């Protein structure tokens, strides 16, 4: 009998054989998968990042996760088990209650918390529960350990954190939509479920790594981090920003020109909220100039708002999200920095009634909110910038007004089309390549 669980296929060894097109299953994986027998599903691992993705699929495209190579191995699909002398997974796994199912799947610490609190007795009875159970490693991070300490400090059956992981109704992933809410046992407080086109799903922007594990009295979804009810705010994302003392500059911008940006009743927004410290990186006079201009102020706000919920655990490679101003914001995951937006690290997040708010340490300034000289510097047109300064034009092009600049690229300065005569001065060159149009 083949050893189903010990077989691991290292994708690095086969990348040269894989199809050149992204998201295509290579021929060798199809061949290997067929050799595993019935009901064998792929588990994708990223050893360098200590991540696992249970796909519940027989085939899975070759990919990188946050720039790191993946390893594929095979386990029995949900509900099946191996039988002696037979290939694949031909046996039916006996069902247990949600508590024992979670324990078997690797949530021993969480189950111990439930037992210590007395809640475990309820989960062993008949019912239709949905249990979001954190893996043991979920409590090893600093934040996970802090949540574990809060759970341990209050062991009664009314423990709000533990009950926040339980819903009194059975929800399988097929019932999840792109953005919906379900009720938890913690005072009816909501859990936000998001489903993405990649097939990945989150609860409160925490990745559901292993879903739809059937139990006698419900369903278990395994998650990578404990849920914290204190992160779910009973107000919309715009109010969350305005009332949180860390975002007074962002709140000022919303009050000046952001009326109507967040539509009442629409339940899908992500606000990338720069902290006040982030705004301090912009000179006060320049920030005031930016906010005083209605078009510039609006462009700045629109560049920080996305019209759907973005949960960073599902970002495994570069992704460009459209803002409410139809601009593009680049999301990516970096092995060193973690998840980043336009190359800037993302801080903590808060959930509102209609979306999510992320804390940023930098302001994402769109082109529409920049002066022409800032655009020149942002595009690394260093030679042109030096010429403008030598000609004394930099102050003018950093001020108010409407300008059209025709700037050569850096490479253009080294072509033979630029005259080299002694009579040519930096100022003459600059004046000849700049057209200034003042609005009427």
Overview of the structural elements:
There is one protein chain. The protein is of the alpha+beta class and 440 residues long. It is globular and about 85 Å long. Helices cover 26% and strands 25% of the residues. Helix 7 (237-243) crosses helix 8 and helix 8 (248-257) crosses helix 11. The termini are far apart. The chain is built from 15 helices and 24 strands. A seven-stranded mixed β-sheet has the order 10-9-15-14-13-12-11, with helices on one face. The relative contact order is 0.08.
Backbone structural class: alpha+beta
In spatial order, strands of the major sheet run: 10-9-15-14-13-12-11
Low-confidence sequence ranges: 1-22, 433-440
Number of H/I helices: 15
Q: Alpha-carbon distance between the termini?
A: 84 Å
Rounded to an integer, what's the Rg over CA atoms?
27 Å
Mean pLDDT: 84
Q: Would you report the number of β strands?
A: 24
Bulk shape: globular
In terms of DSSP E residues, the strand content is 25-35%
Q: Tell me the helix content.
A: 25-40%
What does the main sheet amount to? 7 strands, mixed
Describe the protein's topology.
Blueprint: E1 8-10, H1 27-35, E2 40-46, E3 51-54, E4 64-65, E5 68-69, E6 71-76, E7 80-81, E8 91-92, H2 98-104, H3 108-117, H4 120-123, E9 129-134, H5 142-153, H6 160-163, E10 166-167, E11 179-183, E12 190-195, E13 201-203, E14 206-215, E15 218-223, H7 237-243, H8 248-257, E16 269-274, H9 276-279, H10 284-292, H11 294-302, E17 305-306, E18 319-322, E19 328-334, E20 338-341, E21 344-352, E22 355-360, H12 372-378, H13 382-390, H14 394-397, E23 403-405, H15 426-433, E24 434-436
Parallel strand pairs: 9-15, 16-22
Antiparallel strand pairs: 1-6, 2-3, 2-6, 4-5, 7-8, 9-10, 11-12, 12-13, 13-14, 14-15, 16-17, 18-19, 19-20, 20-21, 21-22, 23-24
